[in-house]
Amino acid sequence: MTDLAPGVTQQALDIASRLTRAEKVRLTSGSDFWHSEPLEREGVTAFMLTDGPHGLRKQTGETDHVGLNSSVPATCFPTASALGATWDTELLEEVGHALGRECRAEEVGVLLGPGLNIKRHPGGGRSFEYFSEDPLVSGKAAAALVRGIQAEGVGACLKHFAANNQESNRMRVDTIVDERTLREIYLTGFEIAVTEAQPWTVMCAYNLVNGVHAGEHRELLTTILRDEWGFDGLVMTDWIATHDRAAGIHAGLDLEMPSSHGAWDKAVDDAVDAGTLSGTDLDVACARVITLALKVAAERASCTAVDVEAAHDAHHALARRVAAAGATLLTNDGTLPLAPAGRLALIGAFAETPRFQGGGSALVNPTRLDTVLETLTARLGNGGEVAYSPGYDAATGEATDAQLAEALATAEGADAVVLMVGLPLSYESEGYDRDHLQIPPAHTRLIQALTARHDRVVVVNVGGAPVEMPWAGAPNAILQAYLGGQAGGGAITDILVGDAEPGGRLAESFPVSVTDLASHANFASHPTQVQYRETLYVGYRFHDTFSVPARFSFGHGLSYTSFEVGEAKVTGRGHDRKVTVPVTNTGERAGSTVVQVYVHDVESTLHRPEQELRGFVKVRLEPGQTADAVVALGERAWAVWDTAAHGWVVEPGEFEIRVGLSSTDIRSRTTVRLAKGGEVTATVSPASALATDTEFAALLGRALPEPRPLFPFHYDSTIADLSQTAGGRLLEKILVGQVMKAFGGNDEDTAETRQMMEAFMRHMPLRALAMSSEGKVSLANLDRLIAVLNATALKARRSARG
Ligand code: BGC
Asked: How many domains does the structure of the chain reveal?
């Protein structure tokens, strides 16, 4: 056996040393969909891992990882895009505590979240489940949640590690990204969350990173995560992500989830015999599983019972506060807040049937559900009247002429119109990406018609991700309410009438058009590969560097009061500096704002974004009050990743510190000169936002990798790939039907649910057949099936050629 490896206790190591090889192998896979393997003989109980990031999804009946089957009632908090928009780490820590308490009450050992992948492109289907386009905001938000969850004695899980930024072909797409971009953009958030909050677990992504499956990536899982960042927890796969468990364990993986019912056991055993997997690596992986099981059991034994009903009440109230804190006021000519009196026309089916969470594994069964219709009607009471008309169908977003006409008639003569628009559930989900950023045409038509007839129209836009708003100038105010969770309806009412302030600031840019974005050139465009040719230029880093204005900038958000930012002063020495800036609430209401500190490198050997967020603080002030906002800047505020040296380097010279209320609303600038640092190795600088072939190859340090061909078929081929051949098409039909049945699909599913399920299934790699067949399809059977498919397809191709 080994010396104590990170994440392994002596007790666990002792237990592992008494196990047979077969037992060790079995421990590195789950026992079922949501549990680890127990070891009764040694008194090690199984622990439960369950979704999801913004609410507990504990299934007690049929299981699935795509949100199909029901789960126990739990508080559904706003999804990550709203949480990110709060910029409020204290509040997020409170959310973490609440999530942790609900897990404790349900005896869940590890909550599968937070997810903190970077929003490389706003069309990513899981944008609602991630915090930001910026690694600092993502990392700080994730760290806060992890701290809260784990303080309750429940493990958190950072996911999906790493470079998992699209849903299309997510289970086999190969992310091609240069080392500097990977470090500066895609890994920094994970690094912050690992080093600041020590999560108990990390989940590997489905995709490949530079040609290697994330779950087999030794550099990511061991060199960077453990050796460099000091992670001492357990690494698990994403659900059914295993491509080769032995290779995974060799790389630093500990636990395959869910159980593959022994599908990989023989291969792991053989790998130890063959010496391609060391016995020590297997020992360490299984000792880490035991360590976590013992930790979960010890926490459970020492924690106090949770009064679930009281917790649900308190958590609903917290969810309402958080939804308001993340709701972002994009425009306002003074129409908001509305007087809670008179006749308010409330238009839009989302007022009655709220869009409050996203589809897929994050789907929560809420304990209750606020609607804007009910809460606004109750708030107005006898002092006013709410006249409601749905205007469109909540599920499809489509409208008949009669629905539109009724909506216009309802709004006639109202003192103000509140129009709810946004993304229907089927527009955004885990499992597929959006192919455009528009809201349904009927919603746009309502905006146009109502703003043409009324002079007080407030648009409330719901949805988990940015949309294009060519109509942004027409309404008197736009509130971006995100997916506000189960209390989101109440929070919208609070903001509309001024009981709460809109606390959000965008943690992502809203582009004028998706085609403006450099990342759009290579997004979900090839089935087996995605090249991150925009390198560092994601989000505001793109907009600000290449002077392509966003419609609403990163960091933007209005308040019901106004703020003045004074002159920033920088103190400190060397690389450790402190930025202090006075902020005054110059309006008549109490309110909060987010002071953002960006750093601009005046002269740099390497190409750099125009400016990068290096610190922020949320400040709450009474009317007339002034307070100092203080932000600390350390080494990394100035550093770049030097690819040749494989390290962070601060290049001496001048840096401009910009303090503002958004990336384009800079209120104070000051310059510092750093005398000490190191030399940076020069690399190619792309001449535009998109690296050319030559530039990208130079940045990668190798020839451009060819995308893996779709034929011949292999383990990573998807069910959809089979449709290239006639026999494959038939098989595809049978398999999609079968797999959908296995994952709980039934005749009562709506068209939208079926659409989601089919997208999931079509992107499933063939290896998933063996892993989800409960032992019916062995890897050997799968090998034979693939050989037959290849032989048949080859024959067909030959005869087609004559
Ligand atoms: C998702 C994970 C989730 C897991 C379990 C996967 O499809 O990518 O985020 O935790 O399922 O439901």
From this structure: 4
Domain that holds residue 653: 561-686
Tokens standing for residue 239: 């659900």
Residues 508, 491, 319, 446: what is their CA dihedral angle, to the nearest 10 degrees? -60
Report yes or no: 210 and 176 within 8 Å, Cβ to Cβ.
yes
Q: Are residues 68 and 152 in the same domain?
A: yes
- Same-domain pairing of 486 and 605: no
> Looking at the structure, do residues 339 and 429 belong to the same domain, yes or no?
yes
Using an 8 Å Cβ cutoff, are 465 and 166 in contact?
A: no
- For 515-547, the pLDDT digits (tens) are 999 999 999 999 999 999 999 999 999 999 999
Looking at the structure, do residues 435 and 291 belong to the same domain, yes or no? no
How many whole angstroms from 358 Cα to the centroid of ligand 1? 13
Token pair 């997208």 is found at 759
Mutate which of 361, 432, 772 to test ligand 1's pocket (most atoms within 8 Å of Cβ)? 361
| 238 carries an active-site annotation | yes
CA dihedral 489, 495, 501, 505 (to 10 degrees): 70
Which conformational region is residue 497 in: left (phi greater than 0), alpha (psi within -120 to 50 degrees), or beta?
alpha
Q: Report pTM.
A: 0.97
> Are 91 and 164 contained in the same domain?
yes
Separation of CA 659 from chain center: 27
Which among 250, 280, 302 is the end of a domain?
302
Whether residues 499 and 607 fall in one domain: no
Is the domain of 743 the same as that of 773?
Answer: yes
Ligand 1 binding site (Cβ under 6 Å of any ligand atom): 51, 65, 112, 159, 238-239, 361
pLDDT 10s digits, 68-82? 667 899 999 999 999
